[in-house]
Amino acid sequence: MWDRLAASDPGLLRLTAGLRTVVAIALTLAVLAALRVPVPELVAGAMAAMVATFAVREKQRGPQAVTLALGLPVALASVALGALLNQRVVAGDLFFVALIFSAVYGRRFGDRGTALGLIGFQIYFLSLFVHATVSTLPTLCGVLCVAFACSATARFVLLPQTPAGTLDRMRRAFRARLAQLMATQAELLDAGPDAVEKVLDDLRTGTARLHETALLVQGRLEDGTSDAAVARLLQRRIADAEIAAERLGLLLLTARSAERTDTLTLHLPGASVPSSGTLPVRDEATDALRRDLGALRLLMLRPAGEAAGTAFAHVRNRLLGYRDEENLPVASPAVQDVFRGLGEAARAALGLRLALDGPQDESDDSPATVRSREELDAEDAAIEVSEEAEREEAEPAGLQRPTTRAAVQVAVGSALAITGGELLSSQRWYWAVLTCWIVFLNTASTGEILVKGYRRLLGTVLGVVAGIGLAALVGPHTWTAFALVLLFIFAMFYTAPLSYTLMSFFVTAMLGLLYTLLNTYSTAVLVLRIEETALGAACGVIAAAVVLPVHTDRRTNDLLVAVLDRLADVTRGAVDQLSGGAGGDLVEQARELDQALADLRAATQPLTHPITPLRSRRNTARYVVALLETCAYHGRSLAATAELLPTHPSIAADPRLRGACGRIVHNIGVIAAHVGDPRSTAEMETGPSIASMLEPGTLRLPRYGRVTDRVLRHLQRLDEAVSGLARPLGVAGGPAAPGR
């Protein structure tokens, strides 16, 4: 159960965020209750503690303390201005708009600027919510000081979180997700015709989640490790394990089908395995395969302290022996390839264990295991931290800078929301402003804002229904209401990264309880909440569409060009190294490719969302993203193979590989040029299939044939995927995409 929790919440980030916020609020309520503070101030303290806790996002404890210390005077100034301007409608509204602009503009100064802007906005909103006045200002200032002190206590004393500890939990999550993926792959062996599609969907989901966790781990390496060399080693081992697991899944899919499975099957929702196949069957080879998949899962998951003993060493030795063709069963070539894939995955598991847990007992090692350890030791010794300058990209200036554009847009949208909100309610117009503000957070295009506004409205409607029922049940029971508020706050933070609709539901249900505590609850108030939310979302969409708009197509095109550029860099660098040249830091280049693809995937959500009316466009967007995921997989695999070149005894440079890569890199550049400028005259290159180079006597070398074959197969699949991108992206020469 702990492994399942660790896998579902990598690093326990959601659990920690929810618990830390709840503890900060509970501690604040306890202190204020002991001081016999009235209920409105209790509500203000709870909201201030929540803001002070979730606004601070730095990873290191020192910067967190500085931001929290700076946040208190910002909060005091904000609540004071809110109390002073509460009765001055015009001046208060103008200041609110200026505050919103400043808060959003502050994002350009990093996490601290974002946190201080968020604290300033939310505390001003708090002053409106509790109807702060000059007479209540001293009490509110004291409440804020208590809330910030309790937030600091929860963060640094009761629930401390260090970068090293977070990284350690994320590594455990990676192992757990790796083991879950192995279990799904084992299910694929026995899945009948009726169940294979569901298992394939689970396999896609498990592969995607493993990749997501790998990116999270790699993003925390710099802060959570002792030095750059250790970070680079862990990055390589994580990448090796991910690639080995993904390759094993593809080999299993191929073994199930009568012909080699297209890589796209693992990345495109709805793609199916060919119906004709050789599995599931029950024979000696497949029985051994089932056994060894379970054994591999054990290798991945078992902690170092439980991995001692002759039996464990025997299992490890047997799996690693498959790399050297030891004890391969009599079976079809596709099934034998799966056993070889098991050997490669076992080697990746060994490397991951050595990197995470340190040296292991070597007394029971077989010759195959000794060779694998020697290879891993040679790779570790060869790691050198690259001192290359980071990629710098020109940032737009003036109104085209993202933070400036967003600040102008949200200021205009908030002005519209204030005007419309005042017409709906002179008392609670600020809900419209809050919604307008929130739909601009972490969004960068009109389509993203539209989808986020829709999700917030849906969650609000459902939350109003729940709030009405809960308010009737709770009635005058103050502490019961506060307990439910804490529960909903935890649920809000725990579900926020998973579903914005669920988060909005818990927020609105919590507000129904807060209104009950403030004796201002009524069904009309919650219905007004829906109206103000709809108005705020509409104002946000209007502002995004009219004021300095960034259309979804433009943003996705920019991100698509970035992905293609990173793909070309990885492919060129990997093949250069495999051809005898210097490819640079390929693991880091592959990570940049994966991050660029993750950004693109998020930006295309408005195009692939179920509410999108253009079905053909939705299918095309999914097809393009799936092709790019296929390209990224082959790029990562090429980079991983090239990184082994200096130390691996069975890999040798082959200068003829460079010729097989030229067309691919050229065509990637042509597609990027057409996406960036549809008037581009660049043309795709065609020629003989790279697969033809796999024929005997062309590129096969007696000693290094299998590795060369694998590289060429990756290049072949990459060539096919790049050609497949041409037609849906408007470049002549590729196959038609579904729905076009």
Automatic annotation (TrEMBL):
Transmembrane segments: 12-33, 39-56, 65-83, 89-106, 113-131, 430-450, 457-475, 481-498, 505-528
Alphabetically ordered keywords of this record: Cell membrane, Membrane, Transmembrane, Transmembrane helix
Record membrane topology: Multi-pass membrane protein
Segments for region (Disordered): 356-379
Superkingdom of the organism of origin: Bacteria
Matching InterPro entries: Memb_transporter_dom (IPR049453)
Compartments it resides in: Cell membrane
Domain Integral membrane bound transporter: residue ranges: 417-542
GO CC term (a single one): plasma membrane
A Pfam entry, by short name: FUSC_2
PANTHER family: MULTIDRUG RESISTANCE PROTEIN MDTO (PTHR30509:SF9), P-HYDROXYBENZOIC ACID EFFLUX PUMP SUBUNIT-RELATED (PTHR30509)
Similarity comment: family membership: Belongs to the YccS/YhfK family.
Protein name: FUSC family protein
